[in-house]
Every structure is written in C-alpha cells, then in structure tokens.
Amino acid sequence: MILEHGGKTPTIHPTARVAPNATVCGEVTIGANTSIGFGAVVTAESGPVEIGENCVVMDTAVLRGVRGNPLRLGDNVLVGPRAHLTGSTVEDNCFIATGASVFNGARIGPNSEVRINAVVHLRTVLEPGTTVPIAWVAVGDPAQIFPPDRHDDIWAIQKDLEFPKHVFGVDRPVPGESMMPTVMPRYAKRLARHKDDKEAG
C-alpha cells in the first residue's frame, strides 16, 4: 500500500518492486531496481526515508524516518526479515541481517555487516568494513562491540548517549521513576496524525 502522509507521497523508481502488502508511507524515495518485500513497512513517520539503488528490504522489515534523524540506505544494501531501522544512515554495500536493530542517529560505514539479532545503538558510528557479530551490541562513537552479557560495559557508554533526550526530548528520570507517563501521551498523539493518511493515487 502506497500512502500519502502529511501531504507527501512516496517517490518510487519505475524499476523498483513494492510487494502488494508492503506499506510505503509519506516522504519516501526508493531507487532503481530496489525490492520492498511482503509485509515490510517503510514510513516517513516524522522525517524522510531515502533508499538507494539495488537494495533489498526483505519481508517484515521496518524502516522509519523520524524528526531530526532521517533514514538513509545507500546502494546495494540488504535489510533482512524482521530487521528494524529507525532514523539512521546505512552506507553502500552493507548487510543488515535478520532481526537486527539499528537505532536513531546511528551511522553504519560502507561494506559493513550487522549480523542476526545484533544491535547498533543510538548515535553509534561503525567504521567502514565493521562486522557486528550475531546478537552482539555496538555502542558509541567510535563503536565498541560487546557480547550481550556485558550489560554493565554497554550501559557505561549507552547512558551518556542520552536516549530519552535524543529520542523523546526529555531528561532521564531519577531511579524509581518513569518517563513513560510524560512521553507516551505525546508520542501517541503525534502518531495519530496517520489517521489522515490516504492511498496515493
């Protein structure tokens, strides 16, 4: 389904393929010979999405552009099933495997691999040719890469990346309190703007 959002309609190259039950919404550009698979979601939620040439976004992947962090895929990029990319940049010739997660403000250098269920955290920068192993976590600029059981090491870097401030514009709550009562009503209201989306024609 090709949807107009906020008065902006996707621009899809005539040679690109979008599966009939994929969703492409808003200010999205899809390059030549690119394929968007079954059940995939590509949405310019509050920021644009640009996908280059000869890319494959596989079934059920989710790609989102957000305010302050557009999503950009270079050329010759594969995004595997169930992968999730938000507001990040993936340079040319990268492989983002099944179930991988790439968060806001991350930058993945060319010829890199983010393997099955791996995570590239908020505002993390991978140098060209980097590999994040299966289920490992890349965090920081420049990235450090840890196995998932090294939570304390990951958190020592991640905390200073300020996820609450960067993503939601709020300060990190004090221990024992939650940002969710402040953030969720506002976020849900913003997403409600999609109620006015309509099929592009």
How would you sum up this structure, described in words?
The protein is built from three helices and 24 strands. The model has no long low-confidence stretch (mean pLDDT 95). The chain has a single domain, classed as UDP N-Acetylglucosamine Acyltransferase, domain 1 (3 Solenoid), CATH 2.160.10. It has a ten-stranded mixed beta sheet, covered by helices on one side. The protein has a seven-stranded parallel beta sheet with strand order 2-5-8-11-14-17-20, with no helix packed on it. It has a seven-stranded parallel beta sheet with strand order 3-6-9-12-15-18-21, with no helix packed on it. It has 201 residues and is α/β, with parallel strands linked by helices. The protein is globular. Helix content is 13%, strand content 30%.
Structural key phrases:
201 residues, ten-stranded mixed β-sheet, single chain, UDP N-Acetylglucosamine Acyltransferase, domain 1
